[in-house]
Amino acid sequence: MINLMWVAIGGAIGAMARYGMGLWLINLSKLFPFATLIVNITGSFLLALLFAWQVQQEGANQQLWLLLGVGVLGAFTTFSTFSLDVVLMAQQGEWLKALVYALLNTFGCIAAVLFALWLKS
């Protein structure tokens, strides 16, 4: 139960940060979805840093990972998790699996959005 609390607290912080970024960059986002792009790149960078610093260390603090990695960055952007998954597969020599995963996520999500919009019309 305590683990859920860490995720929930982090999730609230990450969701507010994501919303705040959208408000902060609202004028730029009229030209191009810069807020989403910046959130995805920043979140991916921060998750990789956290992973390298925290998870790969012996005696890693699970609560810190749940708060920051799963909660804050998970709510800030799930794209960061996707990006880390792809890189970890590639680092393990599973290049084909990483490519298929990346393509399925990218085109599968776009197809899902198109299908949902088609259903609504």
Automatic annotation (TrEMBL):
It catalyses: fluoride(in) = fluoride(out). Na(+) binds at residues 74, 77. Keywords: Cell inner membrane, Cell membrane, Ion channel, Ion transport, Membrane, Metal-binding, Sodium, Transmembrane, Transmembrane helix, Transport. The chain crosses the membrane at residues 6-26, 31-53, 65-87, 99-119. Pfam families: CRCB. It is a multi-pass membrane protein. One of its GO terms (biological process) is cellular detoxification of fluoride. GO terms for cellular component: plasma membrane. InterPro entries: FluC. GO terms for molecular function: fluoride channel activity; metal ion binding. NCBIfam families: crcB (TIGR00494). Fluoride-specific ion channel. Important for reducing fluoride concentration in the cell, thus reducing its toxicity. Belongs to the fluoride channel Fluc/FEX (TC 1.A.43) family. This is Fluoride-specific ion channel FluC. The lineage of its organism: Bacteria, Pseudomonadati, Pseudomonadota, Gammaproteobacteria, Alteromonadales.
